Structures are given as C-alpha cells and as structure tokens.
Amino acid sequence: MKLAGSRIVLTGASGGIGSALxxxxxxxxxxxxxxxxxxxxxxxxxxxxxxxxxxLLPLIADITRDDGRARIVAAAREAGAxxxxxxxxxxxxxxxxxxxxxxxxxxxxxxxxxxxxxxTQALLPQLRSHAEAAVVxxxxxxxxxxxxxxxxxxxxxxxxxxxxxxLGREQADxxxxxxxxxxxxxxxxxxxxxVNALNRELGTRTDSADDAARQILAALRGGARRRQxxxxxxxxxxxNGAFPAxxxxxxxxxxxxxRRHARPAAPVPPPASLTTTxxxx
Length: 281
Fold this sequence. Notes:
By secondary structure, this protein is α/β, with parallel strands linked by helices. Helix content is 50%, strand content 14%.
C-alpha cells in the first residue's frame, strides 16, 4: 500500500501509539484526519507535523457518540474521501473480573468494538469510492491470546478481530481490504502503574510507541491482512490457536503475579497515636 498521498482517517490520534502513528504517516506524505478528544494533545501534534511533507487535520470528536461520528464523516468528505481508515482508539483496564465495574466494561466495549464498527459502516461509501482502500484495526496480542487480569479488554479485542476478519471476507471481491495489526506490549501512558509493574516482574518485552508506529507502517506497506508483532508473542499466539492447553498451563504460573498486581494489598493504617486528636500519654 502506498502511503504518500493517501487520505487517512485515524482515531485515537491523541494517544501514545496513535500520536506516534500520526507523525509517522505525515512523514510519509499522507494527509491525516487525526481524531481525538484532547484538544491540547491534537494541537501539539499538529505543530510537530508542520515541518513534515504530509498534512495533519485535527478534529476533536468522540467516536462513541452518534454526533461525534457524524462530524468525522462530514470532515472526511470535506477533506476528500479517505482511502484508509485506521482504528487506534482504545480503552484499557487491568484487574480481576470479579472486581470489574459494569460501566467501565460497557465503555470499553463501546470504544474498542461498537464505535469502530459504526464508524466503519458510516465511512464505507467514501472508502469504496476508491479502486483500492483499507480498514485497519490496531489490535493487541490480547486479541488472540486472552490473558488473566484483562478479561474485558481481551474480549473487546477478540471481537474486534472477528469483525475485521468477517469484513475482509465480505469484501473479498471488491477493492476494500480489512487488516488486523497487533502490536505487543507498548510503553505508553495507556498502561497503568500496576500493568507496568506486572510487565517488569514477568519480564514482558515492550516496544516504544515510535517502534510500534514503524512496525505498523511496514505492515501497511506490505498489505498483509494479519500481522502480530514480537517474539515470543507470535509463538504464544500460534500455540494458543493450536495447543491452548499448553498456554493454559503457562499462564497459570503467572497467576500469583497477576493477582498481586491486580489487587494490591490495602495500605497499613498508621498507628493510632498518629491519627487521634486528643491528648497523648
């Protein structure tokens, strides 16, 4: 896929991988309609793109809202119909499922799955106006390998991968392709302190946001429908599909660490003598 001259709609542009990807696409000479919810982050991103051969058009919009998606569709039409839609917006969460919050689960499924599906549907007429176009989901290793402590996040990414697979097969006789690109763990603010601590304890390899963006661009140029980054992540994903019982046993060994970081011990209260307001003996 040729990126120079492409017109791209990119969600999650104010996030870690999203902002790095926006800069990398502009460096390739693409026009990027950068969608995010943080005005300051988008303004800073635009300032960095002024010296690059491409063009960045910031747009503040909430992809989970009907009016937000309508604004994106209108802005995309005004900027010229996109030939590439990249879903990079996502919510994450870490914790034991029994402790999870229902509202947070719904928000994650809205952001990670339902909103990308709705936005894809809304932009299909513009995408299909090109002889060649693509819908790209920036996934996760956890979209192929469900991990303890990430039940809802894994579920949302598994479902997103299923949507992309089905869409690609549904459009197989057209010029529209659907790509699933899965970075491994990435060192961004997306991860909580607990996730970072767990990764350090388990020795999880992580990439920088810039490294992830470079790998994503390479995958886009290559055009493969499915890409998983990193080793041993590629091996674990394959094993989970072929011999899931082996992965079950391996991840069981990580459970004590997952539980310890997912549910930190309550802080020990200070001695009573430091908290009382009366006289001390």
